Amino acid sequence: PESTGIEELRAYFQSMLTDGNHKPGSVKMGYYAPRFLFVNVYHKEWAKEYLPTPKIAKTLPLVLSQEEVFEVPSVIGNFKHRTVIMFIYSTGTQVSECVNIKLSDIDSKRMQVNIQEGKDLKQREVSLSPILLKTLRRYYKQYKPQYYLFEGAGGKGTHLGVSKESLTCCHHAKPEHWVHTFVSAIIACILIRLITVV
Q1: How far apart are the C-alpha atoms of 79 and 22, rounded to whole Å?
Q2: Which of 106, 107, 89, 88 is nearest to 145 (CA)?
Q3: Least enclosed by CB within 10 Å: which of 21, 62, 113, 184?
Q4: pLDDT (0 to 100) of residue 139
Q5: Does domain 66-197 have CATH number 3.30.1300.10?
Q6: Are the beta carbons of 183 and 92 closer than 8 angstroms?
Q7: CATH 1.10.443.10 domain span(s) along the chain
Q8: Which residue windows are transmembrane per the record (predicted)?
């Protein structure tokens, strides 16, 4: 590998970009490993020069319509799955945060949920709606979780398990789509309030 020249590397990456068998993200990830090797291990100054890397097109996130949100109870038969989706949508939490929610994180007196292991390991608090609280109480009586709010067969639920539940129940809607829908709804409410005040 050490004898490989810059033109060979350029040709290699260019072929990955044009053969149609590699996604831009995969090519970009594959770009940095050899670059690190040639710059930091083999100390090849030319490796710092330009190598073709793909530009990843940014697409707008999927946001569910009000009709799709309201259809969820009738579409999802499993009450636990329905509660998971409702929790993600109502609190705007990521799946990784959702599966780490403990029973002790639900503060019904202050009507909030304490996110202990949030994004970038940051703690935060989110509002707990009366409807979600009522649903969680029913869920608790039915499933009797011991430590984590959403437990699987071996204890804490998994990111993959929640994703599968969401896809199975809502077809095209992934968990992150519920978060996007939550954010969009919040922004819409803020805009309506601003317009009303003005």
Answers
A1: 40
A2: 106
A3: 21
A4: 95
A5: no
A6: yes
A7: 66-197
A8: none
pTM for the model stands at 0.56
**Which amino acid does the sequence have at 37?**
L
For 181-193, b/e burial (b = at least 16 CB within 10 A) is bbeebeeeeeeee
**Tens of pLDDT along 114-132?**
988 656 667 889 889 898 8
Cα 59 to chain centroid distance, Å, stands at 15
pLDDT of residue 109: 95
With 0-12 / 13-18 / 19 or more C-beta atoms within 10 angstroms meaning exposed / middle / buried, residue 158 is middle
Long-range contacts of the stretch 101-110 (C-beta < 8 A, 24+): 101/148, 101/149, 101/150, 102/147, 102/148, 102/149, 103/140, 103/145, 103/147, 103/148, 103/149, 105/149, 106/133, 106/136, 106/149, 108/133
Q: How far apart are CA 127 and CA 107, in angstroms?
A: 10
Q: Give the model confidence (pLDDT) of 146-182 as tens digits.
A: 999 988 776 676 654 555 555 455 555 555 555 555 5
